[in-house]
Design goal:
Helices cover 13% and strands 37% of the residues. By secondary structure, it is mainly beta. The strands form six sheets. Strands 10, 11, 12, 13 and 14 form a five-stranded antiparallel sheet that branches. A four-stranded antiparallel sheet has the order 1-25-24-23. A four-stranded antiparallel sheet has the order 2-3-4-5, with no helix packed on it. Helix 1 packs parallel to helix 4. The longest helix is centred in the first third of the chain and has 17 residues. The chain is globular.
């Protein structure tokens, strides 16, 4: 019976593979290979091996937008990418017993200090014991012991929602999931501090009409050329990505929704989720993770400061189907930081640059597979690699924060002077 079951599952799996270009690009996982070797006959193993080796590539997925020169982030090109010059890597927090899971790192500067925020738990992702932690640094390289900013409890899960600063007041956002398993509506809280040490009681984030902001706020809050603060909210039912902006410089209220049409997708989320964005010539461009597993970056543009957005399109830039980061350097150059593996592998971590925002043609390696340390702990949804990069730009450096193996919080510093000497 086990043999029959294996054969049936294998045939179904073969059909699924033939229809999922991105999955083929990632080949089979180690766990699946082990299961097949233990449970399937030699004939079925041969069929599965052939399916994995069929000449399907990411190029089989039609791209609407040519965001990079064709082949510039192929496996061969990635292997030859130059490392970003004078780049340094700094551990903010090293996972340990009682705090083995750490993820969702996001950084900001405020009054000359550096602040890093992330979520942490004893072992598993989004566990009932999840806390929001933050750490402070005087130089962005050496970090003080983290502090607890918020804790889950009373049946609700709290995750970190990022930062904002108007120069005088630092704002920290939290996402509250009243019942994550049932996907009941979440909402956003915020707290404020002038020094990053003493925090005011948390309040509900408010829309322009005075109602609560209900949803899960994305951590990428940045300012548009007009001074508008722009981010994305993932709204109920499910997690539907919706642009959200405010002209209130404090970031603590008067939020409004932009309009974003969505690609067709069957599921509890929109196909386009967890975006970042950059601007060029007064046009805003969002880049999204693709839940449909094209393993490509999706993109949408706005020409009215984030109020209306174009139909998202598939680009030819490979991705790991994970959060990515984007923005602008002080000289206006647009950047994207992601893991362009074309599979679920969250390695390598690459910086892509564009002068015009429509073609990214300069690439630098930030972290490659050889630099990844072994995973030390088991846990739910754990995976090796450099997860969920989020960036912060200062006058002289690009900082990329991320979780390594969802265990350690790391920041990579890229000096801008060295970056542009390579042109």
């Amino acid at each position: 019976m086990a043999g029959d079951l294996c054969y049936t599952n294998a045939i179904g799996f073969k059909i699924k593979v033939l229809g999922m270009d991105g999955f083929i690009a990632g080949h089979f996982s180690f766990a699946l290979k082990r299961w097949v070797s233990r449970n399937c006959s030699r004939k079925v193993r041969r069929v599965l091996a052939l399916a994995a080796l069929l000449p399907f590539t990411l190029s089989a997925v039609a791209a609407d937008v040519q965001l990079i020169p064709e082949g510039s982030l192929s496996a061969e090109a990635l292997a030859a990418l130059p490392h970003a010059p004078r780049v340094t890597h700094h551990t903010v927090f090293k996972g340990k017993s009682g705090a083995q899971y750490n993820h969702g790192a996001v950084m900001i500067t405020h009054k000359g200090r550096y602040f890093m925020q992330w979520q942490s738990s004893a072992q598993d992702e989004d566990a009932p014991d999840t806390q929001v932690l933050y750490a402070i640094s005087e130089d962005g390289e050496h970090w003080y012991k983290p502090r607890v900013m918020a804790s889950s409890g009373n049946g609700s899960l709290i995750t970190n929602g990022g930062w904002w600063s108007d120069g005088d007041t630092l704002v920290a956002y939290f996402n509250v999931w009243p019942n994550k398993q049932l996907q009941t509506p979440g909402y956003v809280l915020y707290t404020t501090s002038t020094d990053g040490l003493i925090w005011q009681p948390a309040k509900h984030l408010k829309m322009a009409d005075g109602t609560d902001v209900n949803g899960i706020i994305e951590q990428d809050l940045h300012i548009t050329p007009s001074g508008r603060i722009l981010t994305t909210l993932h709204r109920y039912p499910g997690l539907i990505a919706t642009p959200m902006f405010t002209d209130n410089p404090s970031g603590t209220g008067e939020w409004q929704f932009g309009e974003l049409p969505h690609l067709a997708f069957e599921g509890k989320t929109s196909r386009e989720i967890e975006p970042a964005w950059f601007s060029t010539n007064n046009q805003l461009t969002m880049v999204f993770r693709d839940k449909a597993s094209s393993f490509r970056v999706l993109t949408s543009t706005s020409n009215d400061d984030g109020e209306h957005w174009s139909q998202p399109e598939i680009t030819n830039m490979p991705d790991a189907r994970a959060k990515l980061s984007a923005g602008n350097l002080p000289n206006g150059v647009a950047f994207i930081v992601n893991c362009p593996s074309g599979s679920k592998t969250r390695m390598p971590l690459v910086l892509s640059l564009s002068d015009n925002g429509s073609s990214f043609n300069r690439f630098f390696m930030l972290r490659n597979e050889a630099s990844n340390i072994p995973m030390r702990y088991e846990g739910k949804y754990k995976r090796v690699g450099f997860s969920y990069p989020k960036s912060w730009v200062t006058e002289d450096a690009l900082y990329v924060a991320y979780a390594e193996n969802k265990e350690d919080i790391v920041v990579t510093k890229v000096p801008l002077s060295a970056l542009f000497k390579t042109q």
